[in-house]
Amino acid sequence: MHKDYLAKLCKTTAFAFTILSSLVANAKDYEIKRLDAATIFYQGGIVEGSFQALLAQLTPETTTLRIRSNGGNAEEAMLIGNQIIDQNLSLVVDGYCLSACANYVFLAAPKKTLLTGGVLGFHGAVSLKNSADLRAQFELGNLSKDDFTGIEGYKRLQILEWELLKKIGLNLDAISTINQQLYKKMPLDPKLKRKATLMIDGKKYTFTWDNRGHKLMGKRLEKSLKKNSQFSLKVDNPYADAMYFPSQQFLQEIGVKGILNYPYPENNAALQKLLSEDFSNIKAVGDFPEPEPISKK
Fold it and tell me: Which of 32, 114, 158, 277 is the most buried (most CB within 10 A)?
């Protein structure tokens, strides 16, 4: 029985490795301004209300969205991505487009350009932990985002992502494939012990994030739910400050189209230099060749 309770908790908890958020959590403000008759500039995090604010500025004459964003709210970014497709807007990345901005705004644009010094970074996705049954029903056309509310709101968000990827013309696994590169290029130490902290009515319980820990956590959770206790769960995320910056070649290999200009740093040091001013905390990985081993003479 405790497995059901744990599953419900997982679906309603904002895990860092499944629910998208910006690496700069405090950068919630944004600015939208018109540069000329055809161009709107969006600068800042993507938060609740961002889409409606941007929509209010778009006109039939608007052809280009210029953006500088560290990402943020996944659903708002998906709404912006859908609008980009519907209005056939070109996208220009001025500085950086990270996390939700990369996943849903950049990928959606039919034509996209990175200005010199610009970077595109991926960090997380809704569909990293998806359900095979849910996806099968979606692909059969039996599911809509409106079928899920409340405790199943996470499924709604996942369907929104799949709907957008389908609309773009990408494989439903595209964003997961991109993010797998991060884990491949930055593997975890197998000895690393991840922990989960469960708060119940203000009291803290710590568990290891493994099968044994899941069972113990589920039992504790089952008891608390019978008492209508208040609870929350936080899981250590070793990738919280990590981000993958793909090459144009990799993006094209997975089906991304419409890239008009994509300057790319020569190596990881050059990438870190581009990030040093605003995002020095990011552990960045890219598609750079491995250094050749030094042969002994």
Answer: 158
Q: Which residues share a beta bridge with 114?
A: 93
- The Cα–Cα gap between 292 and 296 comes to 12
Spatial CA neighbour of 93 closest among 251, 205, 218, 222: 251
pLDDT 10s digits, 210-226? 788 878 888 887 777 66
The model carries a pTM of: 0.81
- Determine phi and psi for 88, rounding to 5 degrees: 55, 50
Q: What is the DSSP string of 145-181?
A: GGG--GGGHHHHHHHHHHHHHHHHT--TTHHHHHHHH
3-state secondary structure (DSSP) of residue 42: strand
Q: Residue 82's closest CA among 168, 159, 176?
A: 168
pLDDT at position 281, please? 86
Q: Which of 99, 32, 92 is nearest to 70 (CA)?
A: 99
Q: What one-character-per-residue DSSP string does 61-121 give? A: T--EEEEEE--B-HHHHHHHHHHHHHHT-EEEEEEEEETHIIIIIITT-SEEEEPTT-EEE
Instruction: Give the CATH class of 16-186+241-288.
Output: alpha beta
Q: In this predicted structure, what is the pLDDT of residue 291?
A: 54
8 Å CB contact between 160 and 145: yes
Per-residue model confidence as pLDDT tens digits over 11-49? 433 333 333 444 443 445 899 999 999 999 999 999 999
CB 13 within 8 A of CB 37: no
Q: What is the pLDDT of residue 231?
A: 73
CB neighbours of residue 196 within 10 Å: 19
SS3 state of residue 276: coil
For residues 257 and 107, give the distance between their C-alpha atoms in angstroms, rounded to a whole number. Answer: 8
Tokens 């961002």 locate to 50
Provide the pairing of β-strand 231-235 with 242-245: unpaired
C-alpha radius of gyration, the chain, whole number: 21
Determine what percent of the chain is predicted with pLDDT higher than 70: 84
